[in-house]
Design a protein that fits this description.
α2 packs antiparallel against α3 and α7 runs antiparallel to α9. The protein is elongated. The protein folds into 3 domains: 52 residues; 80 residues; 156 residues, hpI Integrase, Chain A, CATH 1.10.443.10. The chain is mainly α. It has 13 helices and 8 strands. It starts with a strand and ends in a 15-residue tail after the last helix.
Length: 341
């Protein structure tokens, strides 16, 4: 085993031969020689155990977490900065010092039971999904032989809360002036809060009646046509060549939770979240007779399942289905009297 430094780095590198004479080179990632020697000794030992006894060297959970974080930040930058990094920090603190081999079904079950005591069911589900993704990635990369099983959740019912015209009027009347345009554009475009707050004037084309959301949840740009009220809402915001569309006192709007909740409470509207404005957009389209498939594309949903929650709102859908059968002559069939046999 040999330790050395490269000219372009102050970190120690390790070079050694395994039992078959195969040469290995690896950076220790540290500048301390004693620590580098300790790491090198562990790598040589792990390689020996894996080769002769089939024992995979154990890996700290934190290493798998960091590998997941790096990939997720690269592929889902907006979501990572807004949500994921906080959950990863929680995992880092909760499972500090644990090795991947220590993650078993009972360990995961105990963790989830513990979370149920302090957070909502939805939060536990999201935590479990990310933890499972971290461990599955570690498995794909060969860091663990088998990822642990996870307890199953009962499927949660989707929220179908939306605003009536009267409720929308109450909400906008109770909202602060800089919040009203956000509420109206959310109802008229189905944009998520993050998409709206990330909207730049460069992606607004009032002359063509459309906007483009770039900071979307699935990472793909989405163009939305504007209705007359949406055009008027944007036109009243003093359009510019570039810069954030929604501002407060000259600065971009970063958060809407406090201002929106205050407006909701003043309006006396119960069980309402900003995301329900997006539900309002979809619900109104369905009630107006727009096919669910078209609604799916307008909202940017990836699966048809996500818009099926609105299917019961389609006007007279059952009657239309029966009328469609009647066009084939089904309604002309007569039933003979049973006694005529």
């Amino acid at each position: 085993m040999q330790l050395y430094k490269r000219n372009d780095s102050n970190k120690y590198w390790v070079s050694w031969n395994d039992q078959d004479g195969k040469r290995h080179r690896r950076s220790s990632g540290v500048a301390n020689r004693k620590l580098a020697e300790a790491l090198a000794a562990k790598w040589v030992k792990d390689g020996f155990l894996e080769e002769h006894f089939g024992k995979k060297p154990d890996v700290p959970f934190e290493e798998a977490l960091l590998r997941y974080a790096k990939t997720h930040k690269r592929d889902h930058t907006q979501t990572f900065e807004r949500v994921t990094r906080y959950r990863l920090k929680h995992f880092q603190e909760r499972f500090k010092g644990m090795m991947l081999s220590e993650f078993t079904f009972p360990v995961v079950q105990d963790y989830m039971d513990e979370r149920f005591e302090t957070v909502s069911r939805g939060t536990v589900q999201k935590d479990a999904a990310i933890l499972k993704a971290i461990l599955n990635k570690a498995h794909r990369e060969g860091l663990i032989d088998t990822p642990p099983r996870f307890p199953k959740f009962k499927t949660l019912k989707h929220r179908t809360r939306w605003l009536t015209l009267e409720e929308e009027q109450k909400l906008t009347q109770a909202a602060a002036p800089h919040v009203v345009p956000l509420i109206r554009l959310a109802v008229d475009t189905g944009g998520r809060l993050s998409e709206l707050m990330g909207l730049d004037w460069r992606n607004v084309e009032l002359d063509k009646g459309r906007i483009r959301f770039t900071a979307t949840k699935n990472g793909e740009d989405r163009t939305v046509r504007l209705c007359m009220r949406a055009r008027a809402t944007l036109a009243a915001l003093d359009p510019k060549q570039s810069g954030p569309v929604f501002t407060y006192r000259g600065k971009p709007v970063k958060s809407m939770k406090v201002a929106f909740n205050r407006a909701r409470d003043r309006a006396g509207l119960e069980d309402l979240r900003f995301h329900d404005l997006r539900h309002t957009f979809a619900s109104r389209l369905v009630q107006a007779g727009v096919p669910l498939y078209e609604v799916m594309h307008l909202t940017g949903h990836k699966s048809f399942e996500m818009v099926q929650r609105y299917s019961h709102l389609a006007p007279d859908y059952a009657e239309r289905a029966i009328q469609a059968l009647d066009t084939f002559g089904h309604g002309l069939v007569t039933v003979e009297n049973e006694d005529a046999a």
